[in-house]
Structures are given as C-alpha cells and as structure tokens.
C-alpha cells in the first residue's frame, strides 16, 4: 500500500470500498457496461461503499485503512434486489442484504475513519451513475434483470478493501483513483 510523507499533504476526499472477487467483478462489469451503452454514464469499478467520502490527508487515510483492516475478517455479501435511487451516485444499483456482518464491517471502518452517517447504512453496488428520469431508471432496472437473470441472489466473499480518492464533485469519475488496497483475514 502506498504511504507518502504527509507533512504537506492537502486534505482530499477518500472512500473505502469493498471489492468483489474476480469472478463477481467481471460479471458486474459486463452488466454495468451493457447498461452504460444503453443509458450513458461514467465508467467506475464495481464496489460496495463501506465508508462514504470523508476529507483526510492521504497518509492518515492509508494508516486508518491499515489499522481497521488488521482486525476484521472477510465477510459475505448477497445481492437482494435491483433497485432505483434518488440521486446521481445511486441511480440504478444492486441492493446488498444488510446482514449483521455487512453492517458491522461498515460500522467498524466508519469508527476508524471518524465518519458519522447521517442516514442508516444501505450497502449497494451501483450499476450506473446518472441523472435519469424515473421512467428511464425503471427501464434500466428491468434491463439489468433481463441481462443477468440470476443477479439477485448472487453471493460473493469480500476479502479486499480499497482506499479511493473520490472527489464527489467529479461526476465523470476520471479523477477517482484507488490509492491503497488491503486484504482482510480469511
């Protein structure tokens, strides 16, 4: 994992993402690509946000990720539905079952990052980002179910977390970058 001398580092926005394993990642990327070709939107890596964007210096964020990851085990995520959201970054997404281990993992990392949620945690994997109408979102939701009929019920192990620089003002996501990775204990 990258670690820089942080003396003069500016504060930036960082998020913690749970990354699906290779087989689930490729399946999700294929679905996301198909939807993007029909509905537009930026390219981004499939992920479950564990800690929303918080302003920190990079070295501090890296250290917090390492510390938090050292004491947590891998856990299972299960897709329960294809759902519609009310804003750009939650346009059409896969709702992840908020099991105890999924919610506790997020709470654990949020505590280490000093992040306080303003709403209850809703784990999800966004399929497309965009400002679509409600009708377009519903068409996209149905299209996702048609493209991958078995996506609801998909279960995968979360054993890798990423620290991402995520300027949420950049709707192109071009400035977003993964700056560190941590593997969770088996």
UniProtKB/TrEMBL annotation:
Lineage, opening ranks: Eukaryota, Viridiplantae, Streptophyta, Embryophyta, Tracheophyta
Name of the protein: Cyclic phosphodiesterase
One GO term of the biological process aspect: cyclic nucleotide metabolic process
A GO molecular function held by the record: 2',3'-cyclic-nucleotide 3'-phosphodiesterase activity
Originating species: Apostasia shenzhenica
